[in-house]
Write a structure and sequence with these properties.
alpha/beta, Cobalt-precorrin-4 Transmethylase, domain 1, Methyltransferase, Cobalt-precorrin-4 Transmethylase, Domain 2, 5-stranded parallel sheet, 10 strands, 22% strand
Length: 201
């Protein structure tokens, strides 16, 4: 099986990923992943209904993962004989948009995770002075980040980046007093001192 990252938005698929998809005999993915890779698919496609059973797919299947498979993607399901093809991730694009070095970032993933653990991880990272990249969930997003920052009395910039790579991409930087808002579920956040130069509000 090949797990292929298709990027986070239109035209963010790499030539390597596109070539693997074009040569595939059977492609699996979510509706969004199939849409992002659509122009490169030349075979039958199937929508994944149960991600926990990916290991049961045919050995020659190509499985699409939005963004990069190893950033909260399907790379975690790869077996010893599987191949993972990287993709352009929300973390990469966020750092590019905000002009922040990837090595200065701590990643906290709440997507499909326990929000209590995420709150602890976020609190520890931000208290240590790190800038945090956050993959949110419906029960842990801007409001929860603001609440944690208020509880530790730390006022640092908060950025919401929505629909990265799409024509209606939107980036908003705010503060505790005036936090940014997420208008859709397709967003990520970056919080911390590395954004000080981008705080123009």
């Amino acid at each position: 099986m090949k797990i292929v990252g298709v990027g986070i938005g239109p035209d963010m698929i790499t030539p390597e990923a596109a070539g693997v998809i074009q040569q595939a005999g059977l492609v699996y993915g979510s509706p969004r992943a199939l849409e992002l890779a659509g122009e490169h698919i030349c075979c039958e496609t199937r929508t994944i209904k149960d991600y926990g059973r990916i290991h049961e797919l045919p050995f020659d299947a190509v499985v699409l993962s939005t963004g990069d498979p190893n950033l909260s993607g399907l790379g975690k399901f790869a077996g010893p004989d599987d191949v993972v093809i990287p993709g352009i991730s929300s973390l990469q694009v966020t750092c590019a948009r905000m002009k922040v070095d990837l090595t200065d970032i701590v990643v906290v993933n709440v997507h499909g995770r326990d929000p209590t653990t995420a709150a602890v991880n976020f609190g520890q990272a931000i208290t240590s002075g790190s800038t945090v990249f956050l993959l949110p969930s419906p029960n842990f997003g801007v409001d929860e980040v603001v609440s944690i920052l208020e509880s530790i009395r730390l006022d640092v910039p908060i950025a919401v980046l929505e629909k990265l790579g799409y024509p209606d991409e939107h980036v908003e930087v705010g503060t505790l007093e005036k936090p940014p808002k997420a208008e859709s579920q397709l967003y990520c956040m970056i919080v911390g001192p590395a954004l000080e130069n981008d705080l123009n509000i």
